[in-house]
Design brief:
heterotrimer, A mainly alpha (105), B alpha/beta (204), C alpha/beta (414), A: 105 residues, 5 helices, 2 strands, 46% helix, globular, B: 204 residues, alpha/beta, Hypothetical Protein Ychn, Chain: A, 30% helix
Chain lengths: 105, 204, 414
């Protein structure tokens, strides 16, 4: 299993690059990874969904889908596409230190 | 954007230029000459109005949007029922003509029954369409898949472009105010051919 | 002789004059002044554009609706001089009063919206149905309309009969269906309000009805002007709506003489105590009906409910006693929803329109805030009641004060 190191942080990832152990995540690390994926700065609007994802995943055991972010988290899907352009569900899961979401919706 | 260090394993999020934006793009007018440099495009033509055939388009459209693909959905003929607010809560599913309808629960009665198709004659019994529709809706709900109107809201929020087909719209004498707000306009087939330039097109 | 003068022989003025002639002693004179002798059944304006009412059915002579004991002057009012207690008329004549009641109603002022009266638009593609003339012109335009964008628009609140534009939209849906061209007409209801009605429970019901009739809703639309060249309605926030046919309710203002006399607010309505109906500017002046600024709908029903309070208060004022009667803002309203049905709204200053039955609990027979055919028949039957019972001042089996009997309070889980 590959291990990434950056700026003094170490974390294990699967072949695709997603975190395998959510405990290895920290907010400081998330901010660094955000720069790598093209988000220069994580504002409060970015942090809110990320924190929700971590909390929700702890309860359900799985990474929430975009739809769950809307129905349970109360976020607007349109905003999420604007904050995390391109592949929002994957980007958010990555920056939250969670596995890629499964499920079709 | 900070460069990824050497040896760093990171998921592929695509390059920023390759992502669909919510703003509609100008259609590229010339055909073979100019090389296309924009995001991956997907065009879905939804022509069916049965409940079971409404979902494939919606699910593919949503999945593609979630992967940064620029999605254009064209609703034509019976597919208009999917985007018509007056009909899209009541789409139905019938087993008639669908010889591949199976019931998984029958397998609990006797192993192997879950693979046997339901006899077509059953579909003509009064109430069968309503029952089959109810069953399908329950199966969808159990998998946490939203109903059609909510799915359209989700697609719209995800930036999927949706259009209604002018010809079938006029044929059915539909009223534009009845279209789901996510539908951007009633356009002709030619318009859609232009919009879907360089797109993978799927006909449902 | 104590001279009581009423300015305006419309719904309010006529009812009041008739009741005062019956209630006041012989040493009181009741004079009614109006600029013309045509009393219009205004609820009928709604039906003229669709060919449901012929124009002849709307008007009857004002004088014929008034008690024989009332003196009638057909002349326009130029100014009220409260200090001299005189009315100056357009003809030059002056009339003195001891007690004055302003019942001069509202005027649709198309001139208040820039561009609306442009000759390229007005009565060609832009119409109102708040005058008989306008309703008839609109009738011809609708008959010739073969398709396109129809806007049903309110310029500014308050307007008299705030539900009439909604009714117009519903009846337009009916009308075009009957002509089998409904799919060719795109109807949008455009309002400065944030919803279909001012009060929340009714706004939700009426909003749903708009959606059900495939009418779009453009809310929070504060019109700045109409562009005659491009045929667009423009809002202050930058929005613009194109149209092929515009049916607008122009800004409603009080009569010019109220403004010129310094007795009106910025829209020309007379500020009064909302319970006693006495003018805040002058103790000898009262106002009734659409001409006041009371914070309830401008509607005939309001004038009807106000009349008894005003009569009692006027008599008390004449005797130097404190004014006893308090108008509670009661209004009710039939809302024609098309397809042979109507809704009934019943509300006052404190209570918004609620569901339930009217006038009796359970047995009704009319349904509140819900569609029914009986309500529709009620609205049609009302025309007879208007001419034969309401105007003459006969009592109706409907309580003056709004009652909660038969109503389901807001927030009740059904």
């Amino acid at each position: 299993m590959p291990t990434n190191t950056i700026d003094g942080h170490r974390f294990s990832v699967n072949d695709e690059g997603f975190f395998t152990d959510r405990q290895e995540w920290s907010e400081e690390l998330a901010a660094i990874l955000a720069e790598l994926v093209g988000i220069e700065e994580l504002t409060d609007d970015h942090w809110a969904p990320l924190r929700f994802m971590r909390a929700d995943a702890r309860t359900t055991g799985v990474t929430p889908t975009l739809r769950r972010m809307q129905t349970v988290g109360g976020f607007d899907v349109k905003d999420l596409f604007a904050l995390f352009p391109g592949k929002p569900a994957k980007k958010m899961a990555y920056l939250a230190g969670l596995p890629k979401p499964v499920g079709c919706v | 954007m900070r460069a990824v260090p050497a040896g760093f394993v990171i998921p592929n999020f695509g390059s920023p230029e390759s992502h669909a934006t919510t703003a509609a793009r100008e259609a590229t007018a010339d055909g073979a000459g100019a090389a296309y440099g924009g995001p991956r495009k997907l065009a879905l033509i939804c022509s069916k109005g049965n409940l079971d055939m409404a979902y494939p388009g919606l699910i593919l459209g949503n999945a593609a949007a979630g992967e940064g693909v620029e999605v254009h959905m064209f609703f034509t003929f019976w597919g208009l029922d999917i985007v018509n607010k007056k009909t899209n809560k009541n789409l139905k599913f019938t087993m008639l003509g669908n010889t591949a309808m199976h019931m998984a629960e029958l397998g609990y009665l006797r192993a192997g029954l879950e693979h046997r198709s339901m006899p077509q004659v059953l579909g003509q019994l009064p109430g069968m369409t309503a029952m089959a529709t109810k069953m399908m809706k329950k199966q969808m709900a159990d998998l946490d898949i939203p109903d059609v109107p909510e799915f359209l809201d989700l697609l719209s929020a995800a930036g999927v472009h949706m259009y209604a087909c002018r010809l079938s719209f006029d044929m059915m004498k539909m009223i534009e105010a009845d279209l789901h707000p996510g539908v951007q306009g009633v356009i002709s087939a030619a318009d859609f051919i232009e919009i879907s330039a360089n797109a993978q097109t799927i006909f449902i | 002789m104590t001279a009581v003068v009423i300015l305006g022989a419309g719904t309010a003025g006529t009812m009041l004059a008739n009741k005062l002639c019956a209630a006041l002693p012989d040493d009181h004179s009741v004079t009614v002044i109006d600029q013309n002798d045509e009393h219009h059944y205004q609820p009928g304006y709604l039906f003229v554009p669709f060919g449901r009412f012929p124009p002849e059915r709307i008007a009857r002579p004002r004088t014929a609706q008034l008690h024989p004991g009332a003196q009638v002057l057909i002349d326009a009012v130029a100014r009220v001089e409260p200090n001299a207690r005189e009315i100056r008329l357009a003809s030059g004549r002056t009339v003195s009063y001891d007690w004055l009641i302003i019942a001069s109603g509202t005027v649709p002022r198309a001139d208040q919206t820039p561009g609306l009266l442009d000759e390229r638009l007005w009565r060609k593609t832009a119409f109102d149905f708040y005058t008989l003339e306008g309703a008839v012109a609109l009738r011809d335009a609708l008959a010739a309309f073969e398709g396109g964008r129809l806007l049903v628009h309110i310029s500014e609140m308050p307007i008299k009969c705030p539900v009439a534009p909604l009714e117009f939209a519903f009846l337009a849906d009916d009308y075009f269906r009957k002509r089998r061209i409904r799919h060719k007409v795109d109807i949008t209801y455009v309002t400065p309000l944030d919803g279909a009605f001012t009060k929340p429970v009714a706004a939700a019901t009426l909003g749903n009805l708009l959606e059900d009739r495939s009418v779009r809703l453009a809310a929070d639309f504060a019109v700045s002007q109409v562009d005659p060249a491009t045929r667009h309605l423009l809002a202050y926030d930058g929005r613009s709506l194109g149209f092929d046919l515009l049916v607008t309710v122009p800004v409603n203002m009080g009569q010019q003489f109220v403004i010129d006399s310094g007795l009106g607010d910025d829209l020309g309505f007379v500020p009064v105590d909302k319970h006693t109906l006495r003018s805040v500017a002058d103790p000898r002046i009262f106002a009734i009906g659409d001409a006041t600024n009371v914070p309830t709908s401008k509607a005939g029903a309001v004038a009807h409910f106000e009349v008894d309070h005003l009569v009692a208060n006027l008599q008390a004022a004449m005797a130097g006693r404190p004014l006893p009667s308090r108008y509670d803002g009661h209004a009710n309203c039939f809302v024609e929803s098309g397809r042979g049905k109507a809704l009934l709204l019943d509300f006052n200053y404190d209570t918004e329109p609620l569901t339930g039955t009217f006038p009796a609990p359970v047995v009704g027979p009319l349904t509140l805030l819900g569609e029914s055919r009986l309500n529709h028949l009620g609205k049609l039957a009302f025309e007879k009641v208007y001419w034969n019972a309401l105007l003459p001042g006969r009592s109706l089996p409907v309580p003056t004060e709004m009652t909660m009997r038969g109503k389901i309070p807001a927030g009740t889980k059904v």
